[in-house]
Amino acid sequence: MLSEYLPVLIQMITATGLAASMLILSVVLGKSGNQSDIKNSPYECGMLPIGEGQPRFSVKFYMVAMLFVLFDIEVVFMYPWAVVFRDMIVTHTIMFWSMLSFAGILLVAYLYALKKGALNWKE
Amino acid sequence: MPAYYLEIAVVVLGLVLLLVEAFTPPQHKRRIGWAALAGIAATFLLLLTVKSHCGCDSPMWQFYDDSSLSLFFKGLALLCTAFVLMLGLEYLPVLEKYSARAGGGPATGEFFALPVLICAGLMWMASAIDITTIFLSLELTTIGFYIMVAYMRRNVGSLEAGVKYLILGALSTGILVYGLSWLFGATGQTGLDAIRTALPSAARGPALFAFALILIALCFKIAAVPFHFWVPDVYQGAPTPVTAFLSVGSKAAGFLVAIRLMEPFLAVESLRTTCIAILVAVACATLILGNLAAIPQGNFKRLLAYSSISHAGFLLLALASDRHTGELTSTRIIAFYLSAYLCMTLLAFAVLIIINKSTGSDELKAFDGLHRRNPFLGFATLIAAASLAGVPLTAGFLGKFFVFIAAAGAQQWLAIGIAVAGAAAGFYYYFKVIRHVYWNTAPEGAAAIPVSPVAKSLLIILIAATLVLGVYPQLILGLL
């Protein structure tokens, strides 16, 4: 039974092997030549790097990202629902109402986010 | 009326409150709290009219149980939420101070809308008999709590508590899902009934592994050693009404889930001895550590946090002593213990909130000379501490007594010894609070502490409930 999972094991070995070989090769091959500050700095399309590697982003980005995930997941739920809708709606009208209530909950969330100014970019 | 209409009603109430909140001007946010309280009270009245299994045929019954036990825990969740909302109204001045928005006034409306949604999660949890619904309802409550714990965003302690609770809560959720997936893998079923029939023929190794993972995750939720590290810090940092909600509502629902999830394992003879041994070991460790660590605490909230841990130990001991007790089944004992725990813990937190509002301190020193500054508050503290310690004629005593009966029936003599020692240690640190109230003198120039009429009625209800349950436990036991 476990042999069915062999592809998964191969996949895991390939993934870790690829990542490890990249890291190891860059250390082994990269450190052999001459070194200078300029050579060791990250390559940014030929521009001199300015600022830190991890600048602080405005919280607005996170807000939009979170809201995007919320409303994006909605589609994930709707997709399988839409696939079986035509066959099942004849016998189970409840599936229409359950999706309507689900969309209603999201609508409340959307209105709430709108009213609280979560989508207000200028602020 | 099928019982699940109640959850739908509570969810709708929460959504409406959230929407209304967005359109309410800041000076009227208090009304959200009153509306939430009225809605929860109305749902509680509706709950009284619900009969078990209305006979209507619905696929819902695969996932949803409406036995008297479930209805009882729904009632517990609703009552707890109502009390927490009242405490929240009382706590509003502190909340306003620490929840200010960047450019505007305080943001207090959601503080009353979120408990309603958490309550819906707790009620679902009370009825969940399928591992998917158990997990979903657990998440609904936990995610609500993440926000509530970190609600006072201008208070570093609250933020720290929020981060700790978020990380450890997410970790325990991950462990729970992993355990449930092993359970599903071992039995191929998601419904608890089907799992119960499939588990005896399942492989022993995966079943025990699933048991261990599920127990670990639930120990996080109910604050049992060795997964209790988050408890004192989160309890201390969170807004006090939320602490009360966490320690009562979350624990009660967590224990019902524990009863439901452990039951299939305990029913299998080959797994039973091992599972019981693990449960007893966890219970003993919880009793020892909870009680010993409570002794040196000088902060009332931390004291209650360790007290919450030690009560979890007693409840786990009851859970591990099933099957041996005849009339007093361990489920009924746990239900009674949790009702008693609700009354006395909420009473203690109510006193703390009133004192904190006047003195701005959660330390035990703030209780000095309380009986002179407000005799009624002093009396309320006395009842809460006596009941938490387990003085006869209070609800706390009967709860512990029932646990001892059950444990004696199961012949867990070592665990009983530890529990007795723990209860004795409890007398020391709970009576320390009473000493602060009645023996210590108030600092110079300490003013009397005012109690609003709402808070006073709340205290009277809780004191009466603690005393009545202490002499007439049939009130609760008769419901099950």
Give the helix/strand layout.
The complex is a heterodimer of chains A (about 120) and B (about 475).
Chain A: H1 6-30, H2 37-40, H3 59-88, H4 94-115
Helix pairs in contact in A: 3-4
Chain B: H1 4-22, H2 30-49, H3 68-98, H4 110-127, H5 131-149, H6 156-187, H7 192-198, H8 204-222, H9 230-237, H10 240-267, H11 269-294, H12 300-320, H13 330-359, H14 370-373, H15 375-389, H16 395-409, H17 413-438, H18 453-471, H19 474-477
Would you give an account of this structure?
The complex is a heterodimer of chains A (123) and B (480). Chain A is mainly α. Chain A has helices at residues 6-30, 37-40, 59-88, 94-115. Chain A has two domains: 2-40; 59-115. In chain A, helix 3 (59-88) runs antiparallel to helix 4. The model of chain A has no long low-confidence stretch (mean pLDDT 85). Chain B is mainly α. Chain B has a domain at 285-480. Chain B has 19 helices and no strands. Chain B has helices at residues 4-22, 30-49, 68-98, 110-127, 131-149, 156-187, 192-198, 204-222, 230-237, 240-267, 269-294, 300-320, 330-359, 370-373, 375-389, 395-409, 413-438, 453-471, 474-477. The two termini of chain B are 20 Å apart. At the A-B interface, helix 4 of A face helix 1 of B.
Silhouette of chain B: globular
Judged by helices, strands and strand pairing, the structural class of chain A is mainly alpha
Helix content of chain A: 55-70%
Number of helices of chain B: 19
Low-confidence stretches of chain A: none
Number of helices of chain A: 4
- Please state roughly what percent of the residues of chain B sit in beta strands, choosing from under 5%, 5-15%, 15-25%, 25-35%, 35-45% or over 45%: under 5%
Q: Total strand count of chain A, please? A: 0
Total domain modules of chain A:
2
Distance between the termini of chain A: 58 Å
What is the string of helix and strand elements of chain A?
HHHH
Which series of helices and strands of chain B comes N to C?
HHHHHHHHHHHHHHHHHHH
Number of strands of chain B: 0
Portion in helices of chain B: over 70%
Distance between the termini of chain B: 20 Å
Helical/strand content category of chain B: mainly alpha
Mean pLDDT across all amino acids of chain A: 85
> Major beta sheet of chain B, specifics?
none
In percent terms, what proportion of residues of chain A is strand?
Answer: under 5%
